Amino acid sequence: ETCTSPTPQEHPRVLITGNTQRLMLSKYQKLNNMSILMSRKQYGTDNVILSDIKKPPPHVVSSGPFVYADVLDYKHLRELIVNNRVTWLVHYSALLSAVGEANVALARKINITGLHNVLDLALENCLRLFVPSTIGAFGPSSPRDPAPDLCVQRPRTIYGVSKVHGELMGEYLHHKYGLDFRCLRYPGVISVNTPPGGGTTDYAVQIFHDALSTGHHECYLRPDTRLPMMHISDCHRATVEFMQAPECQLSLRTYNIAAMSFTPEEVAQEIRKHLPYLKVTYNPDSVRQTIADSWPVRFDDSNARRDWGWAPVFGLEELVSDMLRSIREKRTNE
Ligand code: AKB
């Protein structure tokens, strides 16, 4: 089977799987009326359907259609795609790095079997398919400073292995059958919503909440652990811009995207410009420190910049001001 009919660009019907809590812009964060990853404003409220196996927060419920979808249930997913005449699929369901190491069998099921379901359905229905990859798709033998798009990828986590598998499967189906597969490797994504846990970069969200509540953050990484990071709204915009890019502009199907790289000590210093009393103690945990030490410290995103015009807006200074402002605003409204 080959995807011959080009996927429509002008008026997509988008289905987003999973991670509605984690990857959403909070209503308190900048671009607050673009409250979900795929902008409902841009494509029409009813044309962007969010799905998850968990109930979404109230501001998501009120922002447009939300349905239950389990990526492991192929038949139900197919029904959703057909009944809703979906043309773009954005596949966010995944277990992250640290939680994946604690639940390898489940990570394999969700990250690999779930992805296979999505790839098959995308091919069957000629969908434009977006799957995020990550800095975690690299490993200790990859070049780390910077990591280019194309290099050795031998990650040592089930999360990384499943992401490399996803990159390769998508690219294979693109070359063999014409699947319109698109993949961005995200850095650690920083948003106001405290993540449910499970990532190696999560300290960089928690530190803001701790700074504003107790004034003390205990960090599970060493003070000098440098990792690529990005504000959620840059991540959101990169994804939308990449999904909209004409196929002829894409020389690759998997791109690194970068915005900034910082260490726990550097982000703490920047927060202290606003909250001088912030105290950070370091208690590196062996699982997450080992994972972080195997990841790139910087991303080379020159191909994304050249091919489809990627450029971040938020640096460390802007990220810190926005996070502190948004968390304060959220608290006064709760
Ligand atoms: C994680 O830390 O697992 C994620 C990622 C960098 O992919 N945030």
TrEMBL record:
Any one GO molecular-function label of the UniProt entry: L-threonine 3-dehydrogenase activity
Family: Belongs to the NAD(P)-dependent epimerase/dehydratase family.
Cited function: Catalyzes the NAD(+)-dependent oxidation of L-threonine to 2-amino-3-ketobutyrate, mediating L-threonine catabolism.
InterPro entries: Epimerase_deHydtase, NAD(P)-bd_dom_sf, NAD(P)_epim/dehydratase
Annotated signal sequence range: none
PANTHER family: L-THREONINE 3-DEHYDROGENASE, L-THREONINE 3-DEHYDROGENASE, MITOCHONDRIAL-LIKE
GO terms for biological process, alphabetical: L-threonine catabolic process
Domain of life: Eukaryota
Catalysed transformations (reactions): L-threonine + NAD(+) = (2S)-2-amino-3-oxobutanoate + NADH + H(+)
Protein name per the record: L-threonine 3-dehydrogenase, mitochondrial
EC number: 1.1.1.103
Known pathway: Amino-acid degradation; L-threonine degradation via oxydo-reductase pathway; glycine from L-threonine: step 1/2
Limits of the NAD-dependent epimerase/dehydratase domain: 53-258
